[in-house]
Design goal:
By secondary structure, the protein is an alpha/beta fold. The chain has helices spanning about 40-50, 90-95, 100, 115-135, 145-150, 155-160, 165-180, 185-210, 220-225, 240-250; strands at about 5, 25-30, 60, 65-70, 105-110, 140-145. A hairpin with a 4-residue loop joins strand 3 (about 60) and strand 4. Helix 4 (about 115-135) packs across helix 7 (about 165-180) and helix 9 packs across helix 10 (about 240-250). The N and C termini lie far apart (about 55 Å). About 35% of the residues are buried.
Amino acid sequence: MRYPIKRIYLSPQSKRRSGKSIDKVRFLVAHDTGNEGSTAKANIMYYERTKDEQSASAHIFVDSVEIVECIPAFEKPEKAWHVMSNATELDNIKWGYDANNTAIGVELCYGGQVNTHEAYRRYVWTLAYLCWIYKLDPKLDIVGHSELDPKRKTDPENALRTIKKDMADLIDDVAFEYEICTMGDDPAMEELLKRMDNLERQVKTLQARNEIACPERAKEAVNAAVKKGLIQNADNGSTDFYRLITVLHRAKVI
C-alpha cells in the first residue's frame, strides 16, 4: 500500500449510485475528468449534489493529494455508469460484457491546482493495485474511455498529453508498477524504489527550474518571438531561454 485510499461514498439508491453489484471485475477503464483543476473531492461533492439529476459516475477519483473511492470498487464492488452503453462493441468483443456491468472506472484529475505528475503517480499505482486485487493483466485488461467511445470521448488522453504521455505509456507504467509492487520485501527492490524516488525528486527539481512562467522583464521579447512564429507560447521556458530571447530582441534580431 503505497498510498492510503479515502472513502467518501455517494448516497446509495440514487441515479449515480444504484447499489447494484458487479459479479466479477474483468477489466478497468481509464478516464480523466476533462475538467482541468478540479480535485477528487470536488468532483465527488458535485456527484453527490446532483445524485438524483444525472447518472454518469465513476468508482475512484485520483488527484495529487488523495485517492478517493466514491462507489465501492475494492470490496463488494458496485456498478458505476462511466461508459455509454453500447457505444462500441469493443468491451463485449474483448471481455464479453458491457463496461458498466463489469469494469471499474478510475478518473485522473489534472491541471490547475492539481500537480498532474504527482496525480499520475497515484493513478498508476491505483490501477496497478486494482489489477492485483482482481488478478488482471495490466497489459491486457486496461482500456481508455476513448477506445470504448471513440466518437464522443478523448479521455484519458486529455490529461496524459499535459505530461507528454499517451495510453501506451500508461499501460507500460502500470505494468511496471505492478511488477515492482508484487515483488514483496526483496531488499534489492526496496533499494531500487528508494533510488527511483530520489531520481524523481531530482527530475521535479529540474522541471521546476526549466518550466517557469515568463518573467516581466522578458515579456516584450517573448511576445515578439511568438508573433513572428519563432515559438508557440510565452510560458514554460527556462531562465536561460528567457535571457537569450531578451538579448536577441534588444539586438533587434527578433
